[in-house]
Design goal:
Layout: H1 10-45, H2 50-54, E1 68-69, E2 77-78, H3 86-93
């Protein structure tokens, strides 16, 4: 394939570059998936899964169960992670303990 860039407009060259970038990314993604599939198959043939061989921790899915609940509105809960909700902070400022809100 021989492309004469001197006869192409700037827009045509940019369009060609965009198409080429997409083709390269698609090719790299396809090759990466093929390599990963081959590695996973080789691990299975030896009685392992990829996470066991790489030492990767399995991904945990799902959500964390709430540990605290608003005393008057049971729909307001908090897992105990991250920033304290305003209702928890107000409860603590009143001199009450976090254990009072425990589920």
């Amino acid at each position: 394939m021989n492309i004469d860039f001197d006869k192409m407009s700037l827009k045509e060259m940019r369009d060609l570059r965009t198409k080429l970038d997409r083709a390269i990314n698609s090719y790299e993604d396809r090759k990466r998936r093929e390599a990963l599939a081959a590695i996973e198959e080789a691990a299975r043939e030896h009685g392992f899964n990829l996470a066991e061989l790489t030492g990767a921790k399995p991904r945990r899915s799902g959500s964390v169960a709430p540990k605290y609940v608003h005393p008057e509105d049971q729909t307001m809960t908090w897992t105990g992670r991250g920033r304290k909700p305003r209702w928890v902070q107000e409860h603590l400022e009143q001199g009450k303990s976090l254990e009072d809100l425990a589920i």
